[in-house]
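worker-03 picked up job from queue 'complexes'. Input manifest follows; two sequence lines, order preserved.
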Amino acid sequence: MRTLKTSEAAAVLNVSPNTLRAWERRFGYPKPQRTAGKHRLYTHGEVAALRDALQEGLSISSAISRARESLSSDTSTLVGALQAFELDRADAAMEAALALRSVERSVEEVLLPSIREIGERHGFDSAPWAFAARWATDWLQRAQRMAPPPMRPAAVLVGDATRDDLDPDALALKALQLFAVRSGARVLVLPISGVAGLNEVLGAFAPQVVVIAGAYASDDDVARWAYRVRAASGALPMALFRRGSRSDAARTTARNLPESSGEAHRIVLDILDSRPRGVAAPAEEHINQPDDSRQVKAS
Amino acid sequence: MIDRPRLVALPGHGDRRPDVQFCGHCGRPPAEADIQPASRVCTRCGLGLMVSAPPEAAPSPHDPFLLVDGQLSICGVSRRAEELLLVDETEAVNSHIGDLLVPADAEIAGPESLVNLIVHAARGAGETHHVVLRPAKEFGIRFWARIAPCGPPRAALVVLADGR
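worker-03 finished. Artifact:
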């Protein structure tokens, strides 16, 4: 994917860098990524689509609307391919998306919305949904295999509280996992249901942040798992991702992450970056122990 | 004297003043010392594209106005119109003009109807027309509006005024 610095993108559009930043604030487009040094990086595809649309537009808003439309054609192509059960065409649609966007944005703006649309059209217990979800899982795993090796001293433990691979939250979890791996973190996903032998695994993995993802497992199961994690790894920052109505604020002070995998990933990175090395997080950032919750219930 | 065909200016066309340019957001004319003449983006506010219209129809920077295409879709809402109509351009773009403004006199039909005037103006045809409009969801408020061709691309310019 070709990217442009702010000055380059401004030159392509024949506007000043300040104008480009003003468009980002007012219209949310073009939407740059950030480099490690927090500099803006624009995807060439987005900028080129806007340049073409500006020539035919009456206002910046209408031009941006048209540019967005031209980019969203990837989503309809992917939905069409998956509804026709054509895996090669689905792969090609993602290739086309990757030509215009980063992997993260291709997943967030094309893959996940397309799969969700199929689920909403056919039902999340239908065969077309299963077909599409399996393909998406496979695609995310392939993308993860191509990710660079871990570069940053960050280890994320994910407690998988989803039902199975066909749980709609499972895809969001896999996307979050991919983003974290691509940002150089080590990621370990363990099922909430498995607590036997957890000490040994965590002793070797040494997580720095814990994310509990999915709304299928009960609060009791999650609390039991979180208690074991705490016993094995000490006080760690904990966050909830897509726990839905189960994330009961009265019983936990763990941080709730946004629904979007990309936004959740950014917050997880912030938690990792803000965590002083060698200093344990305050104990109140943790889910209550299961014994506590039982006491509350019993009373 | 040789009597042969020759080109003559049609009455009225020779006197017609050239179109004037204004920004579709702030309504101001292009800056004289425009350093980027190849761009249609307004160098004053950076949030609008330069559009041309006949001088008698072009808005002043204080006039609220809208740009509407031949499919009656709103393509632009000026900053003043955003304030007047309490809409954001980003939300209004691509919606039907009827969602925002309707004729104050609903009984006007035929060539004088709002739809016809906008469609004709968006084709680049016709002169400036004056109509009375009201917000689609409010009664008791009226705007004196002028509708004229503008572009590029071809569209209808709807300039709102309070009638004073």
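worker-03 released lock.
Residues 278-299 of chain A have pLDDT under 50 and may be disordered.
Chain A has two domains: 3-143, 150-298.
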